[in-house]
Design brief:
It contains 9 helices and 12 strands. The protein is an alpha/beta fold. The chain folds into 2 domains: 135 residues, Rossmann fold, CATH 3.40.50.2300; 94 residues, Winged helix-like DNA-binding domain superfamily/Winged helix DNA-binding domain (Arc Repressor Mutant, subunit A), CATH 1.10.10.10. The N terminus is likely disordered.
């Protein structure tokens, strides 16, 4: 529960703390507690911002892709999936600022969330003034709107749902194959070095080999070829791969 009286917030003029904004701000709240969602909505809407909410992680990811809000407030304890997993999936295709709101006060939880890509971490019960101040910081760091999907001919990748289709037919990839395809799609038109791909997927280039990458790349290409997308991935010897 916020420490500040919400009635005081409701009596303020709209956008008192967000003056000069050229457009209405949109905030996506992913929080399973209905009371917390209601309190957040009151605090945020009192400042003239729009609120979109979701009580589950998968629903939140879908709404993020559709609505493309300016900031996400994310709870870690969701009923269908861990909040950190939501953050990891979100970071596969979006750089939108994410503010974690959690009852977990342990330093390890905070560090893990920040390492996963969160911009900030606020513990419950939250103070309304502090929350709004942190939202202002998040808005200032907001990047350009992300593209929730990738299209190349009949090939389509829905990054939020992690679904790949060719001419409407779903393709099934292993997690590593999908990760390779996602990296290449996000860098369309540019050769992506092998070392860069290995670091993104395995985390440590030293622990992975070119042979490992070639095996997964071969399987990925085979599945694309069977779906009618032969040759979509190009190879430049000594450089890397490109869509």
């Amino acid at each position: 529960m916020p420490e500040e009286n919400t009635q005081t917030l409701e009596s303020r003029p709209a956008q008192e703390n967000f003056e000069g904004a050229s457009e209405t701000r949109n905030v996506l709240i992913i929080e399973d507690d209905p009371i917390a969602r209601k309190l957040l909505r009151v605090v945020i809407e009192s400042e003239g911002m729009n609120v979109i909410d979701a009580e589950k992680g998968r629903v939140g990811l879908a709404k993020l892709a559709k609505a493309q809000p300016d900031v996400v407030i994310l709870d870690l304890g969701l009923p269908d999936m861990d909040g950190k997993e939501v953050l990891r999936r979100l970071r596969e295709w979006s750089d939108i600022p994410v503010l974690i709101l959690s009852s977990h006060e342990e330093i390890d939880d905070k560090v893990d969330a920040l390492d996963c890509g969160a911009q900030d971490y606020v513990t419950k019960p939250f103070n309304a003034k502090e929350l709004l101040a942190r939202l202002r910081v998040a808005f200032r760091s907001k990047p350009s709107k992300p593209e929730p999907s990738f299209n190349y001919g009949d090939l389509r990748i829905d990054f939020s749902a992690r679904i790949v289709t060719v001419a409407g037919k779903m393709l099934h990839f292993t997690p590593i194959e999908y990760s390779i395809l996602r990296v290449l799609a996000k860098n369309k038109g540019c050769f992506v070095p092998k070392t860069y791909i290995k670091k993104l997927i395995w985390g440590n280039v030293i622990s992975s080999t070119d042979d490992q990458l070639r095996v997964h790349m071969s399987s990925l290409r085979k599945k694309l070829k069977e779906a009618g997308m032969d040759g979509v991935i190009k190879t430049e010897n000594g450089v890397g791969y490109m869509i």
